[in-house]
Here is the input.
Amino acid sequence: MVRRFLLAIQATPWLLLLCGLTSLVSQGALARAQESNARLRYAGVPRATEEGGLRFEFRAPDAERVQLSGGDLPGVGRGRDLERNDDGLWSVTIDDVPAGAFRYQYIVDGTVVLDPSNPHTSQANATVWNLALMPGDERFDERDVPHGVVATLEYRNEELGLERRAHVYTPPGYEKSAEDFPVFYLLHGATDSDASWSTVGRAAVILDNLIAAGKARPMIVVMPDGHTAGFRFGPGNGPSFEEQMEEFRDDFTKVLRPLIESRYRTINDRSGRAIGGLSMGGFQTLDIAFAQPEDYAYVMVMSSGLFGIEGGQGREPNRAWEEAHAAALDAASTKEGLRLFWFGCGKEDFLLGTAKASVAMFEGHGLDVEYVETDGGHTWFNWRDYLADLTPRLFQP
Here is the structure.
């Protein structure tokens, strides 16, 4: 025991020196990462180049082929080949990358793998992606401002017999405050999960920056899991789309929202509630909002609408949803207190026709709809923009 103690004393100066050198190296690496990767603190993550690109590197000495996969990355799609050097390091630089967050994976000899040098991930519905950031947009870049907290909320739906999950953003200062906050329920799309808005969607960063600039009111943002059985619609694959939508609406209305309003300090009236979503989440937004039209003052639909309302391919337009909600659509109480009813869709979006037909239907019932058509398609480029543009309009006097 004495010998071990003496050895420890003798080693102490070297340990202190090593810790000091490690600290200096870490600080230097951190500074470089902050400058080039929007505060990602790991040297191995994709690096922003001076020319406005992202450089990806993957070490696989025994691989015969390595590809990069990432839907929103320019010119990448489902596979872009990397080049190998003599040391077994594979690399590729993607040029002209716009500011934002990007999901990516590697395909090594036909097998999809994650980047072991990058701990930043974004969970989708059926897979997990790594996350790369391209700095250059003050709305999406993590800045030196007070930060809110994104927490994972797990709960049980006894009726469905399922363990459920949501992500909840609370604004800076929530823990020390005694006031009640408005709530924005933010829904994801069919291939995503409750973690998508706070990762690739940059929701927390957008809210932090807007609140710090005095452009948005501090609010709670609830990001639920929109699936009750995974993305498996159709015969033999569990519940149908319609059944899942009904299950989700019941889970949201009977379990999740009451849980949020009991556990968090919320403003529990119409003026303190907003709901919005993209793609599948846009349909769910309409389904929930018009089931209880006097509960939501702000309703926002991104790249979506009422599925089937457009018809096409030999099918008649589906009017079942409109008929089922006719009383709510025509009620004066629905229109009173509805401060914002918003639709936005990209000109190249495959759901553009659905969005337009849905807007026309709502206007036909006397609802005041604000419709915005932007460039681009069914991508996070638009959805992040929509969130940044819409959030300042919520819960204002």
